[in-house]
Amino acid sequence: MSDEKPICSAKGCRSAAVWVLVWNNPKLHTPDRRKTWVACEEHREHLSGFLGMRGFLKDVVALAEWERSAEPPTAGDPAAGGSAADR
Questions:
Q1: Fewer Cβ close by (within 10 Å): the C or N end of the chain?
Q2: Residue 85 counted as domain residue
Q3: What is the pLDDT of residues 30-49, one digit of tens each?
Q4: Number of H helices, E strands in the chain
């Protein structure tokens, strides 16, 4: 895993991203396909509006929450199917 922080998807912006904008273009993608843009605090509303007015925006999630949900469960995590005592 890279230590690089995601950069805002807004054109010309080099700020750190703090939001994930989840979207889908129904003319190009299957209904279950999800694409993502990332946004800094300043550009969240603009990018959300751009996707929203086209009917593409599906969800806006804090980057930290998105990253946590993408992490595989650890051995001690009940979601992993057991606890450290099971080893």
A1: N
A2: no
A3: 999 999 999 999 999 999 99
A4: 2, 3
For position 75, what pLDDT does the model report? 54
Domain count, the chain: 1
The parent domain of residue 28 ranges over 1-70
All residues at 6 or more sequence positions from 63 whose CB lies less than 8 Å from its CB, including other chains: 6, 17, 18, 19, 20, 38
52 vs 21: CA distance, rounded Å: 10
pTM of the model: 0.76
DSSP state of 18: -
Which amino acid appears at position 67 of this protein? E
76: in domain: no
84 in Cβ contact with 46 (< 8 Å): no
Helix/strand/coil for 84 = helix
* 1 located within any domain: yes
